[in-house]
Amino acid sequence: MRKAIIAGNWKMNKTPAEAAELVKALVPAVKDADCDVVVCVPATDFAAVKEAAEGSNIKLGAQNVHFAKSGAFTGELSADMLKACGVEYVVIGHSERRQYFGETDKTVNARVRACVAAGMTPIICVGELKDERETGYTDIIVEYQTLMALHGLSNDEVKASVIAYEPVWAIGTGLTATDEQANETIGVIRKAIERKYGKDVSDAVRIQYGGSMNPGNVKGLMAQPEIDGGLIGGASLKAPDFTSVVLYNK
Ligand code: PGA
């Protein structure tokens, strides 16, 4: 079936020296992982992480990408630039980008297309706010965000994409969705993909859970049939914690 994928999202943490130290500790620790292992790091850490992860099963990821090929976009990075640095995965539409940097479903879609066109895998983040869950709109929100993000991709491109379901109220708060809540909402996302792209696509696409996933709750979440991995923030910054999450089935 689907191969699990555990990705660390370091956010705005770690200098190159700190990044190299963390990845050097992870390399031997996660070498026998059964899942795909990715670290999504600040662009200033790409070179250090690439070098430290050389020859290992740890893949390099970025945390955003611009949608234009090149041009007058001060401070931005294009998909070709990321690709040339060895980036294989790109987190797109993280709730922090939606909340603090004006990211919309339209720009998420443009970034996803640029990422896929350059031959990298998008990790597309979707998720409801607390009041959206409380008012009963979770399903509508995650379906809309998911289908908008994937718009214009071929069936094969959708199959190869990764979605991260991250309830915004669970990110960095220590609150986690229950195993059943996470499984149910991920099932809703998969059904929406099935309705639009067919069952062979929805069966193939990998959907992670994210939001305070840690060594203590990873086993329960990963035991759920719809959950294909995790996008890990806080617990990805320390080698022992991230190792325990990656080796959840050992
Ligand atoms: P958290 O972050 O694990 O610290 O909640 C997850 C994320 O933002 O991807």
CATH architecture: Alpha-Beta Barrel
Give the ligands present: 2-phosphoglycolic acid
Number of E strands: 8
Residue stretches low in confidence (pLDDT < 50, at least 5 long) are: none
Give, in order, the helices and strands. Answer: EHEHEHEHHEHHHEHHEHEH
Instruction: Outline the biggest β-sheet.
Output: 8 strands, parallel, barrel
CATH class: Alpha Beta
CATH topology annotation: TIM Barrel
Given the helix and strand composition, which structural class is it? alpha/beta
What is the typical, i.e. mean, pLDDT? 97
Number of domains: 1
> At the fourth CATH level, what is the homologous superfamily?
Aldolase class I
Fold and architecture overview:
- It is a single chain.
- The chain is an alpha/beta fold.
- The protein has a single domain (5-246), classed as Alpha-Beta Barrel (TIM Barrel), CATH 3.20.20.70.
- The chain has 12 helices and 8 strands.
- The chain has helices spanning 16-29, 46-53, 79-84, 95-100, 105-117, 130-134, 138-150, 155-160, 179-197, 199-204, 218-222, 239-246, and strands spanning 5-9, 36-40, 58-62, 89-92, 121-126, 162-165, 206-210, 229-232.
- An 8-stranded parallel barrel has the order 1-2-3-4-5-6-7-8, surrounded by 6 helices.
- Helix 11 links the parallel strand 7 and strand 8.
- Helix 5 (105-117) crosses helix 7.
- The model has no long low-confidence stretch (mean pLDDT 97).
- Bound molecules: 2-phosphoglycolic acid.
